Amino acid sequence: MRSAARIMGMLLFAAVGLLNLAPGLLALAPSQLATAYGVVHTDATSELLLRHRAVMLALLGVALLAAAAVPNWRRPVLVVAVIGKTSFVILVVTTTGAHPKLTSVALADVGALATLTLAAVLTRAWTAHSLRPGDAAP
Fold first, then answer.
1. For range 44-49, the mean pLDDT
2. Interior CA angle at 62 toward 135 and 128, to 5°?
């Protein structure tokens, strides 16, 4: 049963990793920014910042995929993901006049936070050592 929970946790880390990889495509296809974020007619600077955001999300996605496979990476990657997602949700909630499309992006981050919480519980990522003596490797 323990290994089944750990495998499920690993799959959840990977699922959130894939969710974060998807926006990375926006770095290569800036014409899709309007579809993703509701941004229309951005200036070159705003477009550059959004494309950079896409790259950073893709890097987080790669880190989450790696953390799914490498137990010692789970905790630090989890901390970074939680800080990033929570900060975006807070910014969306506390900013007036933002495009409503950002609300759905923030809701996706809330879902990702819930998924990561479950992944952390299942893989015991919050403990100092994901593997204890005698435990089988995930």
1. 84
2. 35
